[in-house]
Amino acid sequence: MTLSRRSFGQTPTILAVGPPDSDALDPLSDLDRFAVRSVTERLTADQIDAGVVCVVAAESDRSSVDPRAVSTVDGVPWITVSETYDADEAAATAAAGGIYLPRSTISRASFVETVRDVARRGEAHSVARLRTDAFEQLLDAHDGSLFVKNRAGQYVAAAGDGDLDPELLYGRTDAALASERDGAAKVSERAHDRTQSVLDTGEPIVGAVEQHDTGESARWIERTILPWTDGAGELRGVVGWARDVSEWERERREMQRRIAQLERFTDFVTHDLRSPLQVADGYLELARAGDQAALDRVENANRRMQELISDFETLVGGAHDGDPHYTRLADMAREVWEVVARGSSTLRIDLPDETIVNAERSALRPILENLFTNAIDHGGSDVTVWLGALADGFYVADDGPGIPEAERAKVFEAGFTTAEDGTGTGLAIVADAADRLNWEVGVEASRAGGAKIALRNCMMATDPSRHAPADATYDLTDARDVGSVALAGSVSEDGDEWVVTGGGGDGERAGFYYVYTSVAGPISVRARLADFEAAGHDSEAGLTVRDDAGDGAPYGSVGRTPDDEVETCWRQTRSATPISQRLGSGVADARWVRLDRIGDTLTCYVSRDGRGWRTIDQRPLSLSDPITLGLAVHSGAARDRATAAFDNVSIRRIDPDEW
């Protein structure tokens, strides 16, 4: 593609410098492509504006052109024109970087063509400068990764991608950078492979989306790499850009998930309405025969159908109930069992009545209803069903025939069933509802030989009671980076406020900055997150209780994310992979966080005002005294830091008489 000054909205102009009565410059009127502007006074640099591509001066006034004025304007050539050849004038012009052109030695047409050729070269150089300036501004302003690499795959120009300083890229390949990028090494390795593919084949890569990491740390990068060729078509390298499309990809996947939910909606409604319809149909006959108690069962079944419709509207529409945002598990189980129970089937609840699950009733009800119904369908009308607590969730077990080990991986697939008249929908509903809550669901054998469906990584508490701390208090005494961090953290204290800055790479196991103290026994730590300047989607600030301050220690934590969610994270054995869970419903304005450690149990709380506390998670965590606890800030980005301001920080013993 050929560009000119006109492409940039500028008319290419030749400055004709000389006295009004000079005939030396008269042939310039024959130029049909360039504008000619006459200057009769001494030419200075400020007269050479952006449109000027060449200066032609009459030799009759040697002072008409200041050589320094022209030579300081990069890329603007100048010509001195004389009627006859003058050796001294030719030498002086050449020494100043100009072109000497005596009229007596060439024809008018040759003169015009020579000036036109010089002006074209000036225009080409000027356009190249404009393009370079525009490209430099694009590099400076671009918020993604924009790059040019040579034939060896080395960077020759780049805009930073937030992780690396462009100055560190020049002259290096992505393969060389991979060893220095810690958690982002795979990103550089993938970039190197794609660059090499274009260099080897000459085939462009356009809009390729690649995933890095999994789970909450997953990132998606869209990459375009094009061959860079010279005027003769020879490959010089590649040009391209990359951008983080994680937010867009998450939204796309969420939309796909919602579409899939809508497609399953009809099957789910049909399946879950079947039980109350059967109840209503069966007891309606008894009511007609005069059994007044049967009318109550029909009424309950009708009410359950109305609740189901409302629940499914919530399931598909994403609406939420108002406060409270938790459900008492035992109460919900009894309500559901009253509707689905058949014959002499029995429900045994092996968990405290106080047990709460941080899930709304509309989300939890389909899980219990389908698990209970599935147990009755396969175990018969005399089946016994147990509801019990796990270390990180709960289970529903029965004494029915169980599920063969070879079939356990398939039971949550829609349409899979082992019953002759089954629909294969019930456990698919359970899996779908659990997935929306970010729970894990699995199947194993129960102690009675039947099936046991386990729901794990649930935010729940079997003992949500709140304990009053005693008067004994502790101060934060130490601070350090924990784990792998590229940028060191820091802490400052100003009165009641602690300002903590932390680094860390992508992923849940990456490092953070820890401000802590060592204590023993039952303890409570709480603080208000007054301000949080996140570095990215994976940043977090909050409280943690750890076995020690070293990397890989068992721990539990509660903190806030940039998305106004509360996250709990747990590593229950040394060096194990942490698991986390987020709660978004009803906690947007809960800036207070709290951890209570009593025995081998750690309980997480949030609060709006520091007085009324909501229990959000509770799990067993075996730690050896003395333990460490305090403030933690994790940036979630290898080359950036997050900063959090905490106030009302309190560390107090819990009176043994209170627990």
Structural account:
The chain is α+β, with helices and mostly antiparallel strands and 659 residues long. It has four domains: 5-132, Rossmann fold (3-Layer(aba) Sandwich); 142-244, 2-Layer Sandwich (Beta-Lactamase); 250-461, Heat Shock Protein 90 (2-Layer Sandwich), CATH 3.30.565.10; 469-658, Jelly Rolls (Sandwich). The chain is built from ten helices and 33 strands. The strands form six sheets. Strands 19, 21, 22, 24, 29, 30, 31 and 33 form an eight-stranded antiparallel beta sheet that branches. Strand 8 and strand 9 form a beta hairpin. Helix 8 (329-340) packs across helix 9 (361-379) and helix 9 (361-379) packs antiparallel against helix 10. The longest helix has 43 residues, at 246-288. It is elongated, with a radius of gyration of 38 Å. The model is unreliable at 1-5 and 318-324 (pLDDT under 50).
Number of helices: 10
Beta-strand proportion: 25-35%
Any idea what the CATH superfamily of the largest domain is called?
Histidine kinase-like ATPase, C-terminal domain
pLDDT averaged over residues: 81
Helix-residue proportion: 25-40%
How would you sum up the global shape?
elongated
